[in-house]
Design brief:
The complex is a heterodimer of chains A (222) and B (795). Chain A has 222 residues and is of the alpha/beta class. Helix content of chain A is 35%, strand content 28%. In chain A, helix 6 links the parallel strand 7 and strand 8. Classes of the chains: A alpha/beta (222), B alpha+beta (795).
């Protein structure tokens, strides 16, 4: 599904150059549940944001479902991003001015899905995630775990083939975190490919493989 | 989707009441002020006159040999009318004071005596009855048309007024029609009377009235619909040139036609456009302010916008959402602005000088509301576009990273806006400063006569009852009685009042001096005064003697001349010389110059005649007193009643009131621009405050680090103030340059004031810097009070 070849990202400061990612090569198959791990500053989140097409300042080759992302225009990348990818952030990043319903509806409205169809899809997700009763609440009225649940619901409502999660349990206590990881496992079992960045070995154990990064290099990919 | 965006916009504004209130008030002031001023400009300059084909109505003037505009003589008018084939109608008219009697209490009103074609030129459909016309009404028919105002006030809006017989200045007259209130051109009138002749009657002896040298009425004309206006104008000139060739008395003169609407507002056009420009500046500053607020808000929403982009929102979609928010804000601000416009307009109309042309045509109607609406949408796009462009391209990588710090985010565009606001505010301030300086200098001009402790009383006499001899008897009798009263002992008679209506001129031709070509002949303002006038009003007798009771109607004709007239005597002593005014008038004295038309018009050569030898039915009394106008009015009324119980007195005003009224337009204009300048200053200060406050908030972590590393609070304070003052200084420099360029446009509006007066420029630049410094003070104080530990812990 995903193939990375010689992905590199660096920042220039005057004459010097600092590498964040060095010659990253990796393959992620359809249905994989991959955890990217490593110490702080290893480049984990950077790699995740490149996979999520939030970052376009890198070199190398990135293939997604046989599409050469590295050769595509910004517009085409956005099209593929909308088609395939759902992103979950550590800090949830729910929009404070929107209700739970509206937050979940938002990605569908950006994909020009008709209103009647959107209503059905959002209702289905609310039901699946057991948050129908909270649909009219605003994010500041929810607990951290509930907010992350809504964020995941938002990430999956458009039925992406790939979910990218950046430290999805980083701001939750352990019980909530376990619930979230169980949810990811269920999604993966249903066919969604998941790539998560995590510091936690326990969280990594929910996945099938780990990619270790250190100082921008992949040191271990099993 | 649009409904969704509008809903989100309303919700987000509701959740940020502080921002929303400041933005709405700013927009309301900017849009409302602009709409109010546009209403005034529209009513005065743009709105067509309420007649059919108004562009074809011309005011016709006689242009004298020296280029000055003049009234018409009967002979000139008749020749013009005979040959004006490009015109469908030509009418002569003259304003008059009219005593309406014959039903209840006599009332004195403003009237106009016209020839039969007047309502062919000004074709206002009557509310009742009919108007007179050249085709249907011949001179001699004793008919009149009254205004809607008089119909309501004097006849109780009774439809039976048609056919009513009244006496107008003693003459039996039938009222045949009532015309609507909008018929107030070319001058306001309460009654229009058909002249008994083919020309308006003259205030002078009718024998003289036939002379081409006696100019006493005005002319209006309507160019035929199918002819271009310029053809009519060319024909007027052609006829005038021909008459000048045929008659020595008209040598060098011609006729000139000017579209009536333009002629009514010629004196105020520049001022109106300057006002519109000034309020446009205020609107721009308001937009820059709101744009700055939105940019700051956009910066605070960067993460939200980055999330939206990460969720699939295209840039265009984000821009549409942000522009929708701007336009919703603009519409709300515009709606409030309409309220502000209505209130402001009523206030301004109340403050406007009465002599502002077309004041009654100013109104807030659907045209103005449309302008306001378009301005609102334009404003919404204007102030929303930059923030939308800037905020719709978030740096996803930086803005989405958890724990990432935004630090001092992009303030470049806000800096530009604050600099622009300061520059625009300074231009307005300087414009206002120059106008106020000019107005102050104008008010301190010495008019050449006393301005305090003088009361004037109009004593106009209806021609139908008072011939020359009766006029003389009346005015002499009133003056005698006034002087016998200790309260009014220091009195005189005068025509015309300074700075008032009424005007008389004559060519100044010294008998025995070399003959001059017509275009080089001097003209002089004519005054008719009683003995004692000079001493009453404080005009100095520089040489010779004043008039005395011996200068009666049968005595040798004498004149006084002003200082400015002395040069016409070729270096010789004017005393004892004669000037030609139909017969030789001997100069008996020289008096100091006095301004007649306005404070900013230098005094012209003037000739004073004794009222016993040159009497007019428009004279008035001037009384030197330290008592109020009320007491004087009562005393004058008593004196008049003793001579003619049926004669009311006219307006009673102090000389201070007359001078105040004469400076009404520059005062109004200066007040408006000063108000805009103060508003602009406040908005610019808010803009500077907003930017510095925002920057301080963003820099709290950085400030915390600096303080932790040893910076003193005073150093932090100075740094923050310095940032704001640097921007303000750039704005001031740009503003000074822009003001030097812009104020050349208002040079014509300034009196004794240079458009680049360094004192004005310097003082206002310093004021603006001081205000900017003050605006930075509060956020700078906040910065110096940052607790390093709190600031660093929150990181």
């Amino acid at each position: 599904m995903i193939k990375l070849q010689n992905i590199e990202k660096s920042y220039r400061h005057g004459l010097s150059q600092t590498f964040v990612l060095r010659r990253v090569n990796a393959e992620i198959k359809q249905g994989d549940f991959v955890s990217i791990m490593g110490p702080s500053g290893a480049g984990k989140s950077t790699l995740l944001h490149i996979l999520g097409m939030h970052d376009s300042a890198w070199t190398g080759e990135f293939w997604l479902h046989d599409d050469p992302i590295h050769q595509l225009s910004a517009k085409d990348r956005m099209r593929l991003q909308k088609q395939h990818i759902g992103f979950v952030f550590q800090s949830y990043h729910l929009l404070d001015n929107l209700t739970v319903y509206e937050n979940i509806d938002l990605p569908l409205s950006y994909r020009d899905v008709k209103k009647a169809e959107r209503e059905g899809m959002v209702a289905d997700i609310l039901d699946r995630f057991n948050i129908v009763g909270k649909k009219d609440l605003f994010p500041n009225q929810l607990s951290g775990g509930q907010q992350q649940l809504v964020a995941i619901a938002r990430a999956v409502v458009a039925k992406p083939t790939l979910i990218l999660a950046d430290e999805p349990t980083g701001n939750l206590h352990s019980d909530q975190g376990k619930e979230i990881m169980e949810l990811f496992r269920r999604l993966n079992e249903a066919g969604t490919t998941i790539v998560q960045v995590t510091h936690s070995k326990e969280n990594a154990s929910f996945g099938k493989r780990v990619i270790n990064l250190k100082d921008g290099w992949i040191v271990d990919a099993n | 989707m649009l409904v969704q965006d509008i809903r989100y916009a309303l919700r987000s504004f509701q959740r940020a009441p502080g921002f929303t209130l400041v933005a709405l008030v700013t927009l309301a002031l900017g849009i409302g002020g602009t709409t109010a001023i546009f209403s005034i400009v529209d009513g005065v300059l743009l709105r067509p006159l309420p007649y059919s084909d108004p562009g074809h109505i011309l005011r016709v003037n006689r242009v004298g040999a020296n280029g000055g505009l003049d009234s018409f003589s009967a002979a000139d008018y008749r020749d013009l009318k005979k040959d004006a084939t490009s015109f469908s109608a030509l009418a002569g008219y003259r304003s008059d004071i009219v005593d309406m009697t014959g039903r209840g209490e006599p009332v004195r009103i403003i009237g106009m005596q016209t020839t039969a074609a007047f309502f062919d030129v000004f074709d206002a459909a009557p509310l009742l009855g009919r108007t007179y016309h050249e085709a249907t009404d011949k001179p001699g028919a004793a008919v009149a048309v009254i205004s809607e105002t008089i119909w309501k006030q004097q006849f109780g809006s009774n439809a039976a007024v048609i056919g009513t017989q009244v006496r107008l200045n003693g003459a039996p007259t039938e009222i045949i029609g009532v015309v609507p209130a909008f018929l107030r051109h070319p001058q306001k009138s309460d009654v229009w009377m058909l002249s008994p002749f083919d020309v308006p009657t003259s205030p002078f002896d009718m024998g003289n009235a036939e002379s081409r040298d006696v100019h006493y009425f005005s002319v209006a004309a309507r160019v035929s619909h199918e002819r271009p206006v310029v053809e009519g104008q060319q024909q007027l000139k052609s006829i005038g040139d021909q008459i000048a060739r045929d008659h020595q008395s008209n040598a060098g003169s011609t006729f000139k036609g000017e579209p009536l609407a333009a002629s009514l507002v010629a004196d105020v056009r520049t001022a109106m456009l300057v006002l519109l420009g000034a309020v446009g500046f205020v609107l721009l500053i308001a937009c820059a302010n709101v744009a700055g607020l939105l940019i700051a808000r956009g910066a605070a929403r960067r993460r939200e916008l980055a999330v939206r982009t990460a969720l699939g929102a295209a840039r265009g979609r984000l821009m549409r959402q942000l522009l929708t928010e701007s336009i919703v804000l603009a519409i709300a601000g515009g709606a409030l602005g309409m309220l502000v416009a209505e209130w402001t307009l009523q206030l301004l109309i109340g403050l406007a000088p009465e002599n502002l042309p077309r004041l009654a045509d100013i109104t807030l109607d659907w045209r103005i509301a449309s302008f306001g609406f378009i301005a609102t949408i334009a404003v919404g796009v204007l102030f929303g576009l930059t923030p939308a462009l800037q905020s719709s391209r978030p740096e996803l990588n930086a803005d989405l990273k958890d724990g990432g710090r935004t630090g001092t985010s992009r303030t470049g565009m806000r800096n530009v806006m604050v600099v622009a606001e300061v520059a625009l505010a300074l231009v307005l301030l300087i414009g206002a400063g120059l106008m106020l300086t000019s107005f102050s200098r104008l008010r301190h001009v010495d008019p050449g006569f006393r301005t305090t402790e003088l009361v004037t009383v109009e004593l106009m006499l209806p021609l139908a009852r008072f011939d020359d001899a009766a006029q003389r008897t009346f005015y002499m009798g009133v003056l005698e009685r006034l002087r016998a009263n200790p309260l009014t002992a220091n009195s005189a008679m005068l025509f015309p009042f300074p700075f008032g209506g009424g005007n008389a001129q004559a060519s100044l031709s010294v008998i025995g001096a070399p003959e001059r070509p017509p275009e080089q002949r001097a003209s002089a303002d004519l005054y008719s005064i009683s003995p004692g006038y000079l001493q009453t009003v404080g005009v100095r007798l520089m040489k010779g003697r004043d008039f005395n009771d011996g200068d009666g109607p049968k005595a040798a004709p004498v004149v006084l001349i002003s200082e400015s007239a002395v040069k016409e005597f070729g270096g010789k002593d004017p005393i004892g010389q004669k000037i030609d005014m139909g017969e030789g008038f001997t100069v008996i004295g020289i008096v100091s110059d006095a301004r007649r038309r306005s404070l900013d018009t230098p005094p012209r050569a003037a000739v004073y005649l004794p009222y016993t030898q040159f009497v007019l039915p428009y004279m008035g009394a001037v009384v030197r007193t330290d008592r109020g106008a009320g007491a004087i009015a009562s005393a004058v009324k008593t004196a008049v009643v003793q001579i003619d119980p049926d004669l009311p007195i006219g307006d009673v005003k102090t000389m201070e009131q007359i001078i105040e009224a004469s400076t009404g337009e520059p005062r109004f204009r200066s007040f408006l621009i000063a108000s805009f300048a103060v508003l602009a200053l406040l908005l610019a200060a808010v803009g500077v405050y907003g930017l510095i406050s925002f920057t301080v908030t963003q820099r709290v972590p950085e400030i915390g680090v600096r303080l932790a590393l040893g910076a003193s609070p005073r150093q932090v304070f100075t740094q923050v103030i310095g940032q704001g003052l640097r921007l303000a200084a750039i704005g001031v420099v740009l503003g000074l340059v822009a003001a030097a360029a812009a104020t050349t446009l208002v040079r014509g509006l300034l009196f004794n004031t240079s458009a680049t007066d360094p004192l004005v420029y310097g003082a206002l630049a310093l004021l603006l810097l001081a205000v900017a410094g003050f605006a930075c003070y509060v956020p700078a104080r906040r910065a110096m009070r940052v607790d390093p530990m709190t600031a660093l812990r929150s990181e």
